[in-house]
């Protein structure tokens, strides 16, 4: 089976968060299980690994804007073929910018012609998030079967319909309410949802949540229909357990059990000058989605019982709010992305806070548990599916008070050393490997290939 993944980022070449982590792990595991796997992503200016250019020129791609001076590069690593598509829109350093709908529309139009240049014909396209949604629609027109994965429904790739329709290379009949049109805009997330044979999200609970007005981001009606048609499911993300392994982690003092974790706590305490109170760690994008405003609101109470170590960057207001607390003897804030420090926090903290307003899957809670660090999480999305009651501490309300109460429960449990150690040992024993999810995806691909594509309601062109 030839599987082609299309995504805006893939670790270790490009990464801003969980999407890149998934694309760094899932294709490799699929290759280990016997699939022929190709991953297509943009050829960003700051990709450091050596990529071999295999083709350069103008691509004959549908749409009103010519694709001139396109570069196609290739690299094989871990049994996976990586194909990079270079366009002028990706020559600036960095991954994401305000004109991303324009940039990723050009990328999507170039994907199928670029695959032809490297001699790859997909059996199944697997596109990820809105940046690859248009690839699903263009692939459907070319007779390809596609799976579309929603990693975060909040970001949809919208642009004014009048200005943007001609960019896409799709026929006029695709721009109706049943197609890409969404409140007068082109919606590239909707392109993936409408035209895919199967749609997945990254956890079973999030698959249910996005069919409701609270989490559906205006697309809940379509998602309810997909559910009724048997086309929407949730497959929980796995964790790269080689990359996140406390027994071999080069960024910490390695350990194999809860007792061995103590040295990492001593080192983290010394690094930030913390006292003997237990450590509550946070490694997160600083955004209201992640509940970081709730964390800041809870700090006056949390610092009574906890040292709080936060690593992250994002919303300038939240960064400023944490900097105001950085002078507190029990608060340490490190701004930005720093993977070695993230490893030290996961290993050295006692508990780990994720007060997310919504969380499609989340990897941080899985990493924390693998390192014997007990999560304090809001009951939403993948946090429900991964944090057992007998291990972590869950709360329902998206308020500082609800977070404070859950942390108070954790603090009381921490004082019962036998109970805390048992929970930490259970956390370290949980299996979050990619093996199970990978087999689910391969089974889904097989079902997609076994039946003809469904007609798309209201779109007579298919």
TrEMBL record:
Q: In which pathway does it act?
A: Glycan biosynthesis; glycogen biosynthesis
Against CDD domains, the record matches this protein to: GT5_Glycogen_synthase_DULL1-like
What is the species of this protein?
Answer: Deinococcus soli (ex Cha et al. 2016)
Which is an annotated GO molecular function term of this record?
alpha-1,4-glucan glucosyltransferase (ADP-glucose donor) activity
Record domain Starch synthase catalytic: where: 2-223
List the EC numbers from the record: 2.4.1.21
Which family, according to UniProt?
Belongs to the glycosyltransferase 1 family. Bacterial/plant glycogen synthase subfamily.
Q: Which UniProt keywords apply?
A: Glycogen biosynthesis, Glycosyltransferase, Transferase
A Pfam family found in this protein is Glyco_transf_5
Which InterPro entries does the record match to this protein?
A: GS/SS (IPR011835), Starch_synth_cat_dom (IPR013534)
Record SUPFAM superfamilies: UDP-Glycosyltransferase/glycogen phosphorylase (SSF53756)
State the encoding gene.
glgA
Give TM regions: none
The entry's function note states: Synthesizes alpha-1,4-glucan chains using ADP-glucose.
Question: Which Gene Ontology BP annotations are present?
Answer: glycogen biosynthetic process
Report the catalytic activity.
[(1->4)-alpha-D-glucosyl](n) + ADP-alpha-D-glucose = [(1->4)-alpha-D-glucosyl](n+1) + ADP + H(+)
Cite the binding residues for ADP-alpha-D-glucose: 15
Stated name of the protein: Glycogen synthase
